Amino acid sequence: MLDRADAEATISLVAFAAFTYYPEKPIEEPGYTIDEDLDWCLEPLRSLPSDEVAVLRERIRDLITGAADDRQAFIRDLLSRAF
Fold first, then answer.
1. How far apart are CA 6 and CA 26, in angstroms?
2. Model confidence, pTM
3. Residue 64: what pLDDT?
4. 42, 56 contact by CB (below 8 A)
5. Chain-centre distance for alpha carbon 54
6. d(Cα 62, Cα 6) in Å, to the nearest integer?
7. Domain boundaries, given as residue ranges, for the chain
8. How far apart (Å, rounded) are the C-alpha atoms in residues 32 and 46?
9. Cα four-point dihedral sign 58, 59, 65, 69
10. Of 11, 20, 41, 68, whose CB neighbour count within 10 A is largest?
């Protein structure tokens, strides 16, 4: 199970990362990689098993970089894991 505060923190971090991401960001901000945003977003989930984190990492990558992705489904899924 996941603590609700950690789930909500992750949702906020993903939202911020998605809002501030743009395709040219790695070019315009030397040294930036999407991995630093992913690490930051996943920090509250460090207590989850590594295989779950790996799946969430790819899902969050898609949410950050894909403007058309369904973020509501991610929010519902993450909150359903919380107590």
1. 28
2. 0.92
3. 96
4. yes
5. 11
6. 20
7. 4-80
8. 22
9. positive
10. 41
In sequence order, which residues have a C-beta less than 8 Å from that of residue 75 and are 6 or more positions away?
Answer: 11
DSSP element (H, E) containing 62: helix 50-65
pLDDT in tens, the chain (83 residues): 899 999 999 999 999 999 999 999 999 999 999 999 999 999 999 999 999 999 999 999 999 999 777 899 999 999 999 98
In 3-state terms the chain splits into helix, strand, coil percentages (rounded to 5) of 70, 0, 25
Residue count of the chain, please give it: 83
**Residue written as token pair 């950690």:** 6
For residues 49 and 67, give the distance between their C-alpha atoms in angstroms, rounded to a whole number.
28
Dihedral over alpha carbons 72, 44, 64, 83 (to 10 degrees): -10
H-state helical runs in 21-81: 25-28, 34-42, 50-65, 71-80
pLDDT at 83: 87
Write out the two tokens for 67.
């403007």
